[in-house]
Design brief:
about 85% helix
Length: about 450
């Protein structure tokens, strides 16, 4: 069977980006729809407190998942660059060596997260009435971290080779399985938050193992020989050099989200439930940005390996244009339909009112998300490791300072939570663009990019 690789060093950049991004978008939408259904099942069949308990773990879980995802992304960048350069042997070595890093990292992170999850949730001022449920949900997710790493590694390597369809198929199956298990465990057996978390763990196991086995059987770049399994210092170093800054970026963003979650927790379970519902919706809305950013990263990595600098420039401009149009189009949708969207999650009128107003606030700032994601995609793809760290620092500083200042203003109060989200996007977008301009001028490989 012919492997589904995509050479992005030739052809129309817009077509290539869309061919790569659309399957990823479909898969990510399925994933986020599962998250929405997950929240609906918890909110409708268990209650608002349970929904708040699940939401309280989100930023903590993201912290540890991000550390592993960053390492996987670093390996993906190296693989894409070697693929673009046409070096098949180095592609295989990159796949194996990044797997070593990711397996070790996921096991360590899972163990640490399990051990300190209660301490972190208490430190975040998680309300006592939902603390026990939050700890249960968090710890089961920690156990599943190595399982997530299996899927993330297989899918990131396939995507580095231009195959965004295979991960899609396994993700769709996983999401459908997850929803079925959710209903079975929660509605059928009344297992509450534990049932939701356990269903996710089982679905992650199936998708991760399935994706890996498929790649080993059908993708030519996963046909390894004994010498490919030797650790390569250069590959290990490259994965760490690119992956650690990305991990720090993601983890700093996660820490900033934890700080914001603590601010939210101070307003009680009602605001927490509204914040969780809005976060689930915005995770879905982030998917077009994130998938095109990932496509641009692979596109930029492959073209850097092939030394096609003009194509990197053109792809970046086209991606920015597409995201600007999307951001503008989403504004009226969110302004007019926010209340109906929040009603999907809960029946509580107060939660609905908070959530709908919050979505109207943040939708004004979507255009800055496009700037962040597209700049992140191209700079990560060409291996600007320092950008990731700078971006993470900017976000963590913004999310720590701005929300605390805004919520302390009497006439702003709770709305400062969501105003600060938009302002952080704006500030981060500014720094992303400045970093892109500065790095482009200083790096001789990119000096021709305007």
């Amino acid at each position: 069977m012919k492997s589904r690789t995509l050479n992005m060093t030739e052809g129309n950049p817009v077509q290539l980006l869309l061919v790569f991004a659309v399957p990823m978008l479909i898969g990510n939408i399925f994933q986020q729809l599962y998250n929405l259904v997950d929240s609906v099942i918890v909110g409708k069949f268990v209650g608002a407190d349970a929904l708040a308990a699940v939401g309280a773990t989100g930023s903590v879980s993201f912290l540890f998942f991000a550390l592993c995802n960053g390492l996987g992304s670093g390996g993906g960048i190296i693989t894409a660059q070697q693929f673009g350069a046409g070096n098949k042997e180095n592609v295989k070595k990159a796949i194996i060596n990044s797997a070593y890093i990711l397996v070790i990292g996921s096991i360590l992170m899972g163990a640490v997260a399990f051990a300190i999850s209660e301490w972190i949730l208490v430190a975040m001022a998680t309300p006592q009435e939902i603390l026990r449920a939050s700890i249960i949900y968090m710890r089961i997710q920690c156990i599943g971290l190595p399982l997530v790493a299996i899927y993330n590694h297989s899918s990131s390597m396939l995507r580095a080779l231009g195959d965004s369809r295979t991960p899609l198929y396994f993700l769709i199956f996983s999401c459908i399985l997850n929803v079925g298990l959710d209903l079975w465990f929660v509605v059928g057996f009344g297992m509450g938050v534990f049932g939701v978390a356990f269903a996710t763990l089982l679905a992650q196991l199936v998708s991760g193992v399935g994706c890996l086995l498929y790649a080993l059987k059908f993708n030519e770049y996963f046909k390894f020989e004994k010498h490919h399994f030797r650790p390569e210092k250069q590959m290990l170093y490259g994965t760490v050099r690119l992956g650690v800054p990305l991990s720090l970026q993601f983890s700093l963003i996660a820490i900033s989200c934890m700080v914001l979650q603590r601010v939210v927790n101070g307003f009680g379970a009602t605001v927490m439930a509204a914040f969780t519902a809005v976060s689930r919706v915005e995770q879905l809305l982030h998917q077009p940005y994130g998938t095109l950013s990932a496509a641009l990263s692979t596109y930029s990595g492959q073209n850097l390996g092939a030394k096609n600098l003009d194509r990197i420039k053109l792809g970046f401009k086209k991606a920015m244009g597409m995201m600007t149009i999307f951001s503008i189009a989403m504004l009226p949708v969110m302004q007019l339909g926010s209340e109906a969207i929040i009603k999907v999650f809960v029946n509580d009128p107060e939660v609905i009112a908070y959530g709908a107003a919050a979505m109207r606030i943040t939708s004004w700032f979507y255009i800055f998300l496009g700037m962040i994601y597209m700049t992140r995609g191209v700079l990560n793809g060409v291996g600007d490791a320092m950008f990731a760290l700078i971006n993470g620092i900017v976000e963590v500083v913004g999310r720590i300072i701005i929300p605390v200042l805004l919520v302390s203003i009497p006439f702003v109060g709770v709305w400062g939570i969501w105003i600060s989200t938009g302002l952080v996007w704006a500030v981060s977008a500014l720094f992303c663009v400045l970093r892109y301009i500065s790095w482009r001028k200083k790096n001789p490989l990119m000096s021709r990019m305007v």
